Amino acid sequence: MRIHILGVCGTFMAGLAQILKESGHKVSGSDIQFYPPMSDYLKQISIETIKGYQADLLPDADLYVIGNALSRGNESVEMILENKLPFVSGPEMLGKELKDRNVFAISGTHGKTTTSYMLAHILNEQGRDIGFLVGGISKNFNVSARLGTDKSFVIEADEYDSAFFDKRSKFIHYSPTNLIINNIEFDHADIFNDIDDIKKQFHHLIKIIPSSGNIIFFNDDDNSKEVIETGLWCNKIAVNSDLIDTNFELMEFTVEGKRFSMKELPLIGEHNFRNYISAILAARLDGVEIEDSIKSLETFEGVTRRMDFVKESCGIKIYDDFAHHPTAIKLSTDAIRKRYPDKRILGLIELGSNTMASGYHEESLLKSFSSLDQAILLDHKKVYKYKNAHGSIDTFLLELKESIYDYDIILIMTNKDSQKFIQPILSYLEEK
Fold it and tell me: Which tens digits make up the pLDDT trace of 150-197?
């Protein structure tokens, strides 16, 4: 089948292109712009790409997969609708490919990408040709998706909507047998009105898990616990309770009276401890002993742009992190403060997501800076009342240039392109 993907440079859609190609389809894709790392990835997997959505550029295909960034008024979309051409959302297309698989869905506001890759790494280290699709790049895999021949498939399960014509959350389409809920917080203010809207989507997801399936969740996360209490029709594995007891300070957890330590594992911070636990317990459901999972995770190198060490120049260490929500910012900054307790740390924070840009999280955002010596905000819509907030990248970089040598650590936090910060920082330091 000839399949054309609209919005192919998104992380999910690029991964879907890989899956569909391995399934035997002829795949092409279009997008408004192509940028690393996904543009490099598409080239690597030999997907033919078209820049732009002009109607005359739309190629012939048996099926069109429309990404959720596209809407009515887009020329290609209008062409498809006007000519009654067959189309489907990306999540629904993936769901069709996974109908006979043992799907492990990794959900939650934070930690989805890292936990998904942790689980995929554990299973891969056991010599299994598992399939996966994760919205990011891992240092342990040369692709972000593959079909695999093993029965099990690992999917990063996003609560964002599926397409302009399908407002259900993406994860509804995956029909998982096993579900991880790392946490639930308010996000995606462009499509959800409040936290109850998000919890409702998780409740719908739980409703379709078979009775033989499993849910792993942290019962110290109130929203996750409330969703579980709304209705459950499968097995539950509650972490941080009498079922699985955790000690975040010691990086230890206890299962069935047996204690396990993870303090030798490479990733830092309580959030990564939780991610480790989720992945280990999921792998256990697939027959991997806890000790074997911990051993496998010793070689897990993490995910690109999750506390990535960029470079040290002029005695200043630069880190790049995807944190784009107050909780994620707090976890990342606390983790780097724990690693460098006596260093001066500057946070560069872009309010890039729709939720952050709306000002919804203003109070909790400002509190999330407590582990930093200073923060500079790139606030495109000028909604935050903060002394070091800038609506322009130019004034942002000017303040950075004037103060850069006052710090030992620079932590960049954005879900957008971080190179617009990294390259000027490196040039400022090289000028010295």
Answer: 999 999 999 999 999 999 999 999 999 999 999 999 988 888 999 999
Domain end marker among 297, 320, 337: 297
What global pTM score does this model have? 0.86
Neighbours of 181 (CB within 10 A): 25
Extract the tokens encoding 229: 């209490």
Q: Which of 297, 327, 345 lies at the terminal end of a domain, its last residue?
A: 297
Which residues form the domain of 332?
308-431
Task: With CA atoms as reference, report the closest residue to 105 among 171, 49, 57.
Answer: 171
Q: Are 432 and 314 in contact (CB under 8 A)?
A: yes
Q: 215-219 long-range contacts, Cβ below 8 Å, gap at least 24?
A: 215/178, 215/179, 215/180, 215/181, 216/178, 216/179, 216/180, 216/181, 216/278, 216/281, 216/282, 217/180, 217/181, 218/181, 218/182, 218/183, 218/274
Burial class of residue 33 (count of CB atoms within 10 Å of its CB; 0-12, 13-18, 19+):
exposed
Chain centroid to Cα 107, Å, comes to 9
Rg (CA), the chain: 22
**Same domain? 423 vs 282:** no
| CATH number of the CATH domain containing 79 | 3.40.50.720
Q: Is 253 helix (H, G, I), strand (E, B) or coil?
A: strand
Q: What is the pLDDT of residues 324-355, one digit of tens each?
A: 789 889 989 998 999 999 999 999 999 988 88
Residue 141's domain is classified under what CATH number?
Answer: 3.40.1190.10
Quote the CA–CA distance of 338 and 270 in Å, as a whole number.
11
Whether 137 and 274 share a structural domain = yes
Q: What is the DSSP secondary-structure string of 159-181?
A: -SEEETTEEEEGGGGG--SEEEE
Nearest residue to 174 (alpha-carbon basis) of 211, 133, 212: 133
What three-state secondary structure class fits 269? coil
Of 79, 82, 81, 33, residue with least CA distance to 59: 79
Any domain includes 302: no
Q: Three-state DSSP class for 216?
A: strand
- Rounded CA gap, 39 and 58, in Å? 19
Q: How far apart are CA 329 and CA 326, in angstroms?
A: 5
Rounded Cα distance, 172 and 205, in Å: 6
The total of other beta-carbon atoms located within 10 Å of residue 47's CB is 19
* Contact between 346 and 375 (Cβ < 8 Å): yes
CA end-to-end distance (rounded Å), the chain: 57
